[in-house]
Amino acid sequence: DIQMTQSPPSVSASIGDRVTITCRASQDLGNWLVWYQQKSGKAPNLLIYKASSLQTGVPSRFSGSGSGTDFTLTINSLQPEDIATYYCQQAYSVPLTFGGGTKVEI
Amino acid sequence: QLQLQESGPGLVKPSETLSLTCIASDASITASGYYRDWVRQSPEKGLEWIGSLYYNGDIYYNPSLKSRVTISGDTSKNQFSLKLNSVTAADTATYFCARRGSRTNMSVIPGTEVWGQGTTVTVSS
């Protein structure tokens, strides 16, 4: 199985800050990496696919980068509605696997 | 816009079978290039992929659960189901059904765009 390691597990930031979350895969994924946002009590919501493609309707302050084994999700100018837990997931092979999540707090 | 809804018992006894159904609002759940997924989430294990039913009928299971899992589809009713047998407390989780695009099909988004709201299943006597 491909192991996905996210860091940090949690981050505390202020409104307007830039937040960076990293995800490392145990093997080369190419660009088959997805980012989700999950708010409390809700299902995950797709933010980024193919490492850097922004899903329709997602604010442009979200961006993704990276390839191979190292990936980054950046939130530029953090907003109150961005408070959530963020997960990476490899879409390269089954079994699909997720990172442990990064909780973003104010 | 496709919507998914999980249904099934919220409490299952140890050693019994957990059975859930996902009801889709329309037939796009079986459109070309898409998987019908089951994913679960618990504080202990985080998000865990259980298995997928591809539009062409291929089925994939997480090896960690493969011996206990069955996923099946009923296209006439726009439904698909999950059965997990011999459950233990470790199977207590929120279970999600979802539709995910295949990375091998250039016409779809290679990610999970549509999720059910999730249903909490507790394994306890």
Task: Report on this structure.
- The complex is a heterodimer of chains A (about 110) and B (about 120).
- With about 110 residues, chain A is an all-beta fold.
- Chain A has strands at about 5, 10, 20-25, 35-40, 45-50, 55, 60-65, 70-75, 85-90, 95-100, 100-105.
- In chain A, strands 2, 4, 5, 6, 9, 10 and 11 form a seven-stranded mixed sheet that branches.
- The mean pLDDT of chain A is about 95.
- Chain B is built from no helices and eleven strands.
- In chain B, strands 2, 4, 5, 6, 9, 10 and 11 form a seven-stranded mixed sheet that branches. In chain B, strands 1-3-8-7 form a four-stranded antiparallel sheet, with no helix packed on it.
- Chains A and B meet through strand 5 and strand 10 of A and strand 5 and strand 10 of B.
Summarize this entry quickly.
The complex is a heterodimer of chains A (106) and B (125). Chain A is an all-beta fold and 106 residues long.
